[in-house]
Specification:
By secondary structure, this protein is α/β, with parallel strands linked by helices. It has eleven helices and twelve strands. Helix 6 links the parallel strand 6 and strand 7. The relative contact order is 0.12. It comes from Kurthia zopfii. One of its GO terms (molecular function) is N-acylneuraminate-9-phosphate synthase activity.
Length: 347
Amino acid sequence: MNIGNYSIGKDNKPFIIAEMSGNHNQSLERALQLVELAAQSGADAVKLQTYTPDTITLDIHTNEFFISNEKDLWKGQSLYNLYKKAYTPWEWHEAIFNKCKELGIIAFSSPFDETAVDFLEKLDVPAYKIASFENVDIPLIKKVAKTGKPIIISTGMASVAELDEAVSTVRAEGNNQIILLKCTSTYPATPENSNIATIPHMKELFGVEVGLSDHTMGTGVSVAAVALGATVIEKHFTNDRADGGVDSSFSMEPHELKQLVVDTERAWQCIGKVQYGPTEVEKPSLLARRSLYIGEDMKAGDEFTKKNLRDVRPGLGLPTKYFDLLLGKKIKVDAKKGTPVNWELVL
């Protein structure tokens, strides 16, 4: 599968997505700066979110439209005001996408309703992302599937049946370009509730590329996910958590994103294939193995003893497993101390 000019799959390094979300803090200048920092850090793509407060919720500030949970990152705000603070103005999208193109990285977005899909189609996005909270929004998924473009679906909270319905909806539209991202919809998430063992299971179950939408801090969970087969990693990104913002507390800073790029590529490189025996680069190290050597000068006809037959490095002599077999046998010719033992020396 290709997104833009990037191939997704086990034969390619992980595709790293820097999720801008609302970390622009309602400043286009900051948004463009984030694109530059993401590119400098080695990200392959920048992702936006395309909605307005009115396309995602209702202008109500009480009851279930108000976040009162004391443990919630966004407690004390209405959904409407939160999304008003977090959304990316649609008139910014073209400038942000053009900046990405200028810097050679991919730009795409998560639409949250059908009007957002229509808008993003006019900008010719190369792919779409379905957020975890929308992975059960079948009309939206169908609308995106009809574009024929790659679809990345976060799987937070979704049951197997719900994921099957989402994947089947995409395939029913003749679109088989699907990537599922394991996701834990807590902000931030912890390693303990990441359950990335799901990644290879999900790949086998649905026959699609898999990855991780990672809300944990640091790079460890993402690196482990790559080792389990993740080919896409998505992380929220900001220029400085201290600046605040709706997602800043669980977002990566530039130096951390750069480390993520390095660490996940190393994890991908080290997977390799099933391998036994020395690789080409290991073959010179065979010399460091122990083997059998003459431990003191010997005359033709002398018997091998524990004193004159030594098990030492380097490895040019017979393997040490023959030590007991050679004891008591005689040597054919004179041999000096330090001579590697071979069968031609043995009577």
